[in-house]
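quick one, 298 residues, struct below
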Amino acid sequence: MTVPEPTQTPATTQVSVSTGPAVDPLTISSPGFYQGDITIAAAGQTVNVPIMATITAASILPPYLGSIVNAASQIQGSISPGEIITIYGYSAGPYETAGLTVDASGKVATSLQGATVLFDGKPAPLIYASPAQLNVMVPYEIASEASTTISLAYGSVASTAWSVPVAPSVPGIFTIAGDGVGPGAVLNQDNSVNSASNPAARGSVIQIYATGEGQTSPPGVTGSVTQLSTKTPLLAVTATIGGVDALVQYAGSAPDSVAGLLQVNATVPQGIAPGSAVPITVSIGGVPSQSGVTIAVK
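---
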């Protein structure tokens, strides 16, 4: 004979903490002695268990700066005016990720949920913030400096400052995977994304997206958003595709984007061999972008 299992009503637990009147535990933000109770409700009955707790102050860990890299190439080294860089660290930003916002002046905000990046003590425009990563626009004002100091601040706590060399240009091409190698962030002539299944035709014009071009003409404005007024790099921009010089038809601001995002329109040379991983480079002022970036050509 099978004996049926007894049925039970799952218990539900309700927790409240109070200092006299009920107080939400999440609102307890200062040290002190607190008392309240835990209410356990089950099968129509309730039991109140008194509790007491002493809340002590704990030191807030300062943001830790781990590495500073070109946001496109993911290579560490010098930085250039207007470049979009990525900073990796610890306790660098808010628990929940935050994206670009525009302030009342129409520029990219310099603080995202309490996170800021300081160049020589001055906040810079932030594009993205999370606990371990910040994407920031390098101020154009550092163009005349040999180096700049970078530090992080989250709330009222600041990291140690790093001294980073400044260079006229530090070109990097954005990639689909975001790790600086492999298929580039490139559009074909019809504005479709270049890929092995959607290669660019030889003789067509592709759009390459990069950063690190340095100062521009007219002069770049820190935190600005490109609209009708485009800017071109002061330094000469060249490109190669499949190891062959490619005619650059345009090099300047990417439309409707943040300052520092460079768009290079280049013609795919007729004489190169087709393939799914044809190497591309962009050089600015004679400084080449990272190796290992490719496009598909048919």
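The CA atoms of residues 20 and 219 lie 61 Å apart.
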